[in-house]
Amino acid sequence: MRWLFIGGLRIKEYNPSDAFGNAISLTPYGETFAQFLRAENNDLSESEISFILFAKLYHEELFIDIPGTNVEEVENVLDNQTFEGSLIFPWISDTILYDKYYCNFNNERKTLSFEESLMLLKDTPKGVYQTGEYLVGPFGLIKSSCKRMFRPLLNIPIRSCSNPVCDNIHEIKLSQYEDSRITIGLNILYDKIRNSGIESSHWSRYSFSQFKIDENYEYYDDLRLRGFPNFLVGAFNEAEFRLILAHLIDTHSKEIRSLFPKRSEFKKLFEGDSEYIVNNLDKNCCFQLMLLLNDNKIVNAIEFLIDKNILDIPRKGYLKYLLLKIMAG
Ligand SMILES: [Zn+2]
């Protein structure tokens, strides 16, 4: 969940909320850093201090007392912030941001300021990302039946370079608001850690090794589905997404409906048959709901629709070209 909190662009008025501050429990080690932050900058609220320590998570030891933290409450905060848009996740899967970038910025820009980042993302679809079972997107935070690693980053691939023989898509770095108390507090914390001369523990490597994603295949197996969400979102358009999602709702009705977003705002959207549901959804909404089910189920749905000629797959060469393009991206 931490990757989702730190991977989104925070609006200028971003406030982690009292609920977040109350839900987070610090270790005694984390408390010493909280005291340091309070002393260094007395403008920082307690929830901001909790957010800063949560974002960094550890140095020599963990800052956060994980068993003592109210995870459900942290989930609610992430759900609200994603839904309301105080944490913004870019939708990088179509050419919307690519086109907008070229309409507004010079090709050679590799970093955008906070204001420019906000301007780029304004009125664009909400991005869909997943870490573990946590799945964020236009429906806020929902939980998938399967664990994936598809995390949001502020470096987004939307730039072609001026080298005429290079067909890679390069990254643009979006920037957080640098005068926000959270950014200032994070910099104070980073400086303290850097100046301490003490190396960070290998906790991140350990935590990563504990982060089991659902995967049936080894890395050398060509049936491995690790990059599947990237492929899926690049290979099919909105109309095709609706067909795939409708088929998934028909074939896995009980499972997928039990996982649908529970917010009252969405209740009406899901009261009906699959055709009614998908007709009201944009591509990013379909994508978030599809990822509620595991990759094998999505692959089976696509294969079924291709077999029945409901999904029309272009000639082989073009698909290969598309695949190569997505892999290169
Ligand atoms: Zn290039």
What characterizes the major β-sheet? 2 strands, antiparallel
> Whole-Å distance between the termini?
25 Å
Strand content: 5-15%
- The average pLDDT value, as a whole number, equals 89
Poorly predicted spans = none
General form: globular
Cofactors and ligands: zinc ion
Fraction of residues in H or I helices:
40-55%
Computed structural class: mainly alpha
For this entry, what is the oligomeric state of its chains?
single chain
In spatial order, strands of the major sheet run 1-2
Radius of gyration, Cα only, in angstroms? 21 Å
- Count the helices. How many? 16
Strands, count: 6
Give, in order, the helices and strands.
HEHHHHEHHEEEEHHHHHHHHH
When the domains are counted, the total is 2
Write out key terms for the chains shown:
329 residues; mainly alpha; 2 domains; two-stranded antiparallel ribbon; two-stranded antiparallel sheet; 16 helices; 49% helix; binds zinc ion
